[in-house]
Amino acid sequence: MRRSGEAPTSSPSSSHTVSGHPPAKSDRSDWATLRRLFPYLWQYKWRVMAALAFMVGAKVANVGVPVLLKNLVDTMTPKPDMAQALLIVPIGLLLAYGLLRFSTALFGELRELIFAKATEGTARQIALEVFGHLHALSLRFHLERQTGGMTRDIERGTRGVHSLISMSLYSIVPTIIELVLVLAILGVKFDWLFVWITVAALVLYITFTVTVTEWRTQFRKTMNELDSTAQSRAVDSLLNYETVKYFNNEEFEAKRYDASLDRYRKAAIKSQRTLSMLNIGQQLLIAVSLVLMLWRATSGVVEGRMTLGDLVMVNAFMIQLYIPLNFLGVIYREIKQSLTDLDKMFVLMEKEREVRDAPTAQPLAGADSTIRFEDVSFAYEAARPILKHVSFEIPAGKTVAVVGPSGSGKSTLARLLYRFYDVQQGRITIGGEDIREVTQSSVRRAIGIVPQDTVLFNDTVEYNIAYGRPGATREEVEGAARAARIHDFISATPAGYETTVGERGLKLSGGEKQRVAIARTLLKNPPIVIFDEATSALDSANERAIQSELKSAAQDKTTLVIAHRLSTVVDAHEILVLESGVIVERGTHGELLAKQGRYAQMWALQKSEAAPLL
């Protein structure tokens, strides 16, 4: 452990929120944060009590060492029967000394061994709850978040659990126990001046340390902010690696990152100056108090009130007390930092879910998969409405397509059906049940989607296809891959289905990713299917080849097709033309062409662009 040194730079708390907005201030006090942590820890109450018992045993043994040294020194004081004493008494004292030293280490290790399960179990449970809660938060939250800052906050919060428990249980409490024992021995065996010198020194030391550390907090916070800014910029730049390369902006990104690092460097240097001031002041107080204690003890030896062994014992007590006090700056700062990090994670856990299940929500019945949008209006921001009084029905087993220009609200329909957001007016029903009155998990279990922008996990092709139905066999995965016309491509690769797809699937082409997404949805085999520009990344030949498979996959399923290429929706039972959030036309392909309206104009435009399928 460092003597009053800085905490590792990887642990400071970020002042960035996970949403990327200015941090929300928590009104929770440090004690409130501890109370919030206590129920997690109290699940292991018997381990906590056993650890405390071993800790007390370790400190009693530790305090016994100076007492034993005193007796050993006094025994070694020249006497007429010195020879006999050397043969009997010192051997016993030496063995006792060794036993006490071993007991201190043994009890300490037993304490850590017993308490490890409590510490790790508490950290695991809190991290798991945060992970689950993040998945339960709305899509809006995840669209606004800063991934680098969020992951750093979670990492610090989890580490904060370990630090808080270890610092308090392994440092603060043992030091208090040892201090009480030492003061009791000094007060009973000698005069109370020893006690008052020790207490006064401790009060001055703690007051100075806490005051300066609190003052230094502003510099640490600045470091934390700049550290998180640098981290977020680095992660964002690496995630957009291809964009950086496209525009030849490596040097620009490096300069941008270096600017953040330079600001962090300056803040770190300023923080180090104040740290040096803190360390110098602490050591001055310790030196003065040690001199006063030794002056009192040596005066007692000279005046005959104390033995040489007493002097050794007092000196040993002071060393044992001031060694942990040397770390008080680090301990106090780490505890404060851990409380801040933990509170930040608790704030994240308490963040309100924009979309939540109703208290009486039951699973979707599932007998009827008819979908109805009834007078639905929705806006991501109040000033910019996306959907305006939209009403339509997708009968069970039928296909309805939605077409229209970009930004008309087509993909928003899929997001609302999935309950990523709740409608602000009207309602959406599946089988006559309002999706706001059933559980979200049952709604999403009933729907499969091939999204426009397919993002894959950094794992194998098999894992990504099997994600549609975890636990599926290799044969089922291969069957879905064949249906999506990607099996031959996978088999032709050296690793086959064990081929890793890279971060966000970047090792695959857009068309290959799209076909993996189609296979994943085919494997899930839900009663409702959404194709959101499902063939947008495919070339004409592949699109033509896979259209029949998509049509087969949609057979007897309630299907919503969101498309830009009109050639992909000509067989839909009904086509809706959406513009500026309003349905302006509806009907079959033939009916819409006969109307010579907006759909017919779009069809003619796409044909004039010589699209291969048109």
What does the model show?
The chain is of the alpha/beta class. It has 3 domains: 30-349, ABC transporter type 1, transmembrane domain (ABC transporter transmembrane region fold, Up-down Bundle), CATH 1.20.1560; 364-446 and 527-614, P-loop containing nucleotide triphosphate hydrolases (Rossmann fold), CATH 3.40.50.300; 454-525, Rossmann fold (3-Layer(aba) Sandwich). Helices cover 62% and strands 10% of the residues. It is built from 20 helices and 10 strands. The protein has helices at residues 30-42, 45-75, 82-87, 89-136, 139-144, 147-189, 192-239, 241-246, 250-302, 308-326, 328-349, 410-417, 440-445, 461-466, 474-483, 487-492, 510-524, 540-553, 589-595, 598-608, and strands at 371-381, 384-394, 399-403, 425-430, 433-434, 447-450, 528-532, 558-563, 574-579, 582-587. Strands 6-7-8-3-9-10 form a 6-stranded mixed beta sheet, sandwiched between helices. A 4-stranded antiparallel beta sheet has the order 2-1-4-5, with helices on one face. Helix 18 (540-553) links the parallel strand 7 and strand 8. The protein is elongated. The relative contact order is 0.09. Residues 1-25, 82-87 and 610-614 have low confidence and may be disordered.
Main β-sheet, spatial strand arrangement: 6-7-8-3-9-10
What is the CATH superfamily of the largest domain? ABC transporter type 1, transmembrane domain
Count of strand segments: 10
Q: Mean of the pLDDT scores?
A: 78
CATH class group of the largest domain? Mainly Alpha
What are the low-pLDDT stretches, counting only 5+ consecutive residues below 50? 1-25, 82-87, 610-614
The rough form would be described as elongated
**Can you tell me the CATH architecture of the largest domain?**
Up-down Bundle
